[in-house]
Input
Amino acid sequence: MSMGLLRSIFVITSICLTACSQPVKLSTETQNVQVLPFKFAISGLDKQRTVRLYLPPSYDTSDKSYPVVYMHDGQNLFDDLTSDAGEWAVDESLNYLARTQQFEVIVVAIDHGGDERKNELSPWENKRFGVAQGKEYMDFVVEVVKVYVDNNFRTKPERLYTAIMGSGMGGLISHYAVHAYPDVFSKAGIFSPAYWYSQQVFSFTQLKKAKLDSRLYVLYSDNEGDGMIADNDKMYRQLKSQGHPRDNMKFKRVVSEKRAEALWKEQFPDAVTWLFQKQPAF
Output
C-alpha cells in the first residue's frame, strides 16, 4: 500500500472520529410549538423575521381566549437545535404550569437578527455598535406581528393581558416597550437588561413613564458584574422615586454561578406567573 493512500486513509479516519465525537443536537421543542408559515417583513429595514408560536395545551380542545407574551430571540426559547447557547425550555415550563396550576398563555417568539441583533434591539444608538433600529423593530412587533396573531388566534388582545419579555438586549427593548407602548403592554419581563448599551434608557424612563399598573419583573445575578448590579440599582431607585408602586416592581438579584441561559430558564416560571398575578381572571 502506498504512503499516499495510507495518508488519505488516516485523514479520512481522523475526520470521522472527530465528527463522531461531537454531541448531536436533537430538536427538543414540544408539539404545541409551531413556526408560522411565512416570514414577516420589517417595514423600513428591508428585513424579514421568522416568528414561532406556542399554544397552550387546551387550545385545540376549548374555545377559550388566552393572554399573550411577546418574546425576543425566538431561536433560543423552545428548541436546543436552534438555540445559540442552550434553550430556555419555555414550552416545557408552560406545559408544566398548565398541568399543575392551570396557568396558560400564548407565547409569540420573534427570531433575532444575528449580527444585527444589538441594533435591532435598541432604540438608542451606540457609537461602538452603530445605528439604532429598536423603534422600527418594536413598531413591527406591535403593528404587524401582534395584529396578525390577534386576527388569527384566540388571544386576549387588551393591554392587561399582554406582556413582553427578553434577556440582555431583549431585556433592554422590553423595558423600552412597556414605557413606549403603554396602551399595548402592561407587563415586562426584563432579564439581565443591557442598560449599559445606552444611558439614554434612564432619561427616557424619566420622560416616558410607564402606567402605574404596569408590572415590571427585573432579574439579574451577582456574577454578571458590578456594572449590571449598579445599573439595576439605579433603575430601581429611579422608578421608585418616580412613584411606580413597589408592589408592581420586582427587582430580583440572585446569587448564581449558572450561565445566562440556564439562569433565565430557571427563573422563567416565576417571572411569567408573577407578571400575570394582578389582572382579571383568565
User: Anything to note?
Assistant: The first helix runs from residue 3 to 21.
